[in-house]
Amino acid sequence: MLELHNILAQNVEAVKRIPAEARFELLTTLALETGGYVHMPDTHNTWDAQDFQIKAQGVFGWGTAREDAVRMWIKCATRDAARLDRLAKAQAVLDQPDEFEPWFLKSACKTILSDSRDAAIRDAAKTQLAQINAVAA
Predict the structure, then answer these.
(1) Residue 122 and residue 120: Cα distance in Å, rounded?
(2) Is the CA virtual torsion 37, 88, 3, 126 positive or negative?
(3) Residue 2's pLDDT is what?
């Protein structure tokens, strides 16, 4: 998870650093390299969504113009990178429960339960939270 966070955060910064005209092309390459896709409107097809869509590194951005889709991807990717950063820190706390105060460990468990999509990590957080609550009772 930490590696994914670092790569996502690095790619967001790389996209932000380049001129606006080149961002769509970079995201197109990134999408193709990470199993995503890019959709451009087909004005001849009335069934088409008629918007630009970018899915790269599991993050989706869309808009009526290329610039809007890029802007939305950057916004969503930044938010997801921050979520992954919080989860990485919370998981580091959960991995060494004896090193932290119960209130801090409880906070890490709640972060994992609210933000994680990994069932095994969520189960570990639930177990640790139950142990903390049992000791407090």
Answers:
(1) 5
(2) negative
(3) 47
